[in-house]
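User: Hi! I have a protein structure encoded as tokens and I'd like to know what sequence might fold into it. I'm fairly new to this, so please keep things simple.
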């Protein structure tokens, strides 16, 4: 088996549902310009880190310091699980009910990175942890397309996927970029409770419930904002997407909902102590919002 197929097979055995390869090079001028406009318009809100390292974000080769990066290997991992059966008034985004994907995917990809290293190659794994245009590269690598809701949609799988990208100096035959798109659907534009999605696929993070409940640290939330039960994230633009109609439950056990999270109520959150928060959310992405942030969201209607 050649190196490319060996890497692909290993990644699929690690739980990936789609794996693609592309050349490490600058992003297209158009894509770079769009991103810079998003930043200069202030649509990234308080996520100041998105404005940093513009040159690295433009050229992923700069991410590999020890060697000349030649390829990006993009892996999509499914995380869909159905809503918990327990009735609760506190909703966590689907991706946040299990273990932290940053940790899980790095561990799961160890056989792939180990294999590349054994063959003398440098690697850097990026899982939402580096200034890398992950969805752009997923399209270039043929893994999927970016929907109007800004999510990466893997044909036949949907958008409940995490992306992990390996930057490496190994050379691979690139895959064909994905040329699919949303067409005339527009369901997510209508459904978005904050009006964050433009019909042209533009996105204003400042109006997004995910941003407001997770990233926004500006004290209380706007009075006129309706969270509709969300205390951490919002899945509405994924729930309404026809590409997710047949989403299959993930086979990655680490992403299955933890009872300790799925069963939480607002009252329980508001009574939660610091040690309890640390225990319940150990190894969970929810830790990002801190106890104060979670209580702020639980207080808001
Ligand atoms: S996560 Fe919710 S608020 Fe944010 S864009 Fe999607 S539907 Fe809109
Ligand atoms: S809901 Fe429709 S328009 Fe929105 S991402 Fe899905 S297919 Fe595209």
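Assistant: Happy to help. Inverse folding works backwards from shape to sequence: for each of the 301 positions I chose a residue that suits the local structure. Here it is:
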């Amino acid at each position: 088996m050649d190196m490319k197929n060996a890497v692909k097979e290993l990644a699929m055995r690690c739980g990936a549902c789609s794996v693609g390869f592309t050349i490490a090079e600058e992003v297209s001028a158009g894509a770079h310009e769009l991103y810079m406009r998003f930043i200069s318009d202030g649509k990234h809100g308080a996520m100041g880190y998105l404005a940093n390292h513009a040159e690295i974000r433009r050229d992923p080769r700069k991410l590999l310091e020890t060697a000349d990066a030649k390829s990006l290997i993009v892996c999509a991992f499914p995380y869909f699980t159905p809503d918990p059966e327990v009735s609760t008034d506190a909703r966590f985004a689907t991706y946040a009910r299990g273990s932290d994907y940053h940790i899980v995917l790095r561990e799961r990809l160890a056989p792939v990175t180990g294999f590349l290293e054994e063959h003398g190659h440098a690697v850097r794994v990026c899982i939402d942890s580096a200034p890398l245009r992950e969805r752009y590269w997923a399209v270039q690598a043929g893994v999927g397309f970016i929907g109007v809701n800004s999510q990466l949609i893997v044909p036949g799988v949907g958008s409940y996927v995490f992306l992990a990208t390996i930057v490496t100096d190994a050379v691979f035959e690139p895959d064909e970029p994905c040329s699919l798109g949303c067409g005339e659907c527009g369901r997510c534009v209508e459904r978005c409770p904050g009006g964050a999605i433009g019909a042209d696929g533009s996105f204003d993070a400042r109006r997004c419930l995910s941003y407001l409940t997770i990233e926004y640290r500006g004290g209380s939330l706007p009075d006129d904002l309706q969270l509709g039960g969300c205390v951490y994230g919002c899945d509405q633009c994924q729930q309404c997407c026809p590409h997710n109609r047949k989403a299959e439950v993930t086979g990655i056990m680490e992403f299955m909902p933890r009872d300790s999270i799925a069963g939480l109520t607002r009252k329980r959150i508001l009574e939660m102590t610091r040690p309890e928060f640390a225990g319940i959310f150990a190894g969970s992405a929810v830790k990002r919002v801190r106890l104060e942030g979670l209580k702020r969201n639980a207080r808001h209607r």
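A useful reference point when you look it over: The pocket of iron/sulfur cluster (ligand 2) is lined by residues 147-149, 182, 185-188, 240-243 (CB under 6 Å). Feel free to ask if any position seems puzzling.
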